[in-house]
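Action item from last week, closing it out:
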Amino acid sequence: MNLAYLLIGGNLGHKEWHLTQAKQQIASFCGSIIKSSAIYETAAWGITEQPDFLNQVILIETLLHPIDLLSTILQIETNAGRERTEKFGPRVIDIDILFYNNLVVALPELDIPHPRIAERRFVLVPLVEIASDFIHPKLNKSLAELLEKCIDQLPVHKKTYKI
């Protein structure tokens, strides 16, 4: 079994429902969810003139290889109505592979670890909640250390419910 950390998020429509649906699809087609962070509300990163996002990090056990996991995730996004029209633009659902075991992958279609983890508070806060001691395989620092040094100051607010 392989362990993969995924970030799920979105800022369009009924955001909580889309997160729930994404998690159900991931559990059905990618592997068992063994840990979930709380849900966090965050301001948009990149293009800021859009609705706030809900984000959550999940840890799954999967038999899928990284490229197959990516392909499955992209299909889940498409089935949920995701349209890729604008980089950093609004979206119904977004699912990113953050880590896959301790593997480093550098392919045109897939970078693992996700290349901007250390720059994004909205990724690090939920990651640290469920895996603070995990060592980033390229940066050789724990996720807690990366969060401590993260220069992104966008607010990340923990929601009081968990789905």
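Closing note: The first helix runs from residue 15 to 29.
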